[in-house]
């Protein structure tokens, strides 16, 4: 499944990074502590967080996650959106909390 297909199935809205929407998704990682995510998220994961800053985009690039989903309508700042576009890292938003979003990802990927 691609990031775009998962986003459509889950009802997420794309905020930035449309060039990466064909990235394959094979799992999920939930976390907000960037150093922790950097050492534990896997390539191909959907990263669920509320961190919408340029540092989150850098961590996404380093870990090669498929996309970022900002839960609870967390904001993506202007600099982060520009960096996501440049690096082709899809960033989506959703209204649900992290738990409900993770459950939805799990059920959709099963």
Explained architecture:
- It contains 5 helices and 5 strands.
- It has helices spanning about 5-10, 35-40, 55-65, 80-85, 100-110; strands at about 15, 25-30, 45-50, 65-70, 90-95.
- The chain has a 5-stranded mixed beta sheet.
- Strand 3 (about 45-50), helix 3 and strand 4 (about 65-70) form a beta-alpha-beta unit.
- The mean pLDDT is about 95.
Q: Mind describing the biggest β-sheet? A: 5 strands, mixed
Extended strand count = 5
Note the quaternary state here.
Answer: single chain
Q: What spatial form do the alpha-carbon principal axes imply?
A: globular
Mean pLDDT: 97
Order of helices and strands: HEEHEHEHEH
Helix content: 40-55%
Strand order of the largest sheet: 1-5-4-3-2
Query: Rounded to an integer, what's the Rg over CA atoms?
Result: 12 Å
The poorly predicted ranges are: none
Q: Could you give a short description of this structure?
A:
By secondary structure, the chain is an alpha/beta fold. It has helices at 3-10, 34-40, 54-63, 78-87, 98-109, and strands at residues 13-16, 27-30, 45-49, 67-70, 91-93. It has five helices and five strands.
Keywords, separated by commas or semicolons:
alpha/beta, single chain, five-stranded mixed sheet, 43% helix
Layout: helices, strands, pairs:
Layout: H1 3-10, E1 13-16, E2 27-30, H2 34-40, E3 45-49, H3 54-63, E4 67-70, H4 78-87, E5 91-93, H5 98-109
Parallel strand pairs: 2-3, 3-4, 4-5
Antiparallel strand pairs: 1-5
Helix pairs in contact: 2-3, 3-4
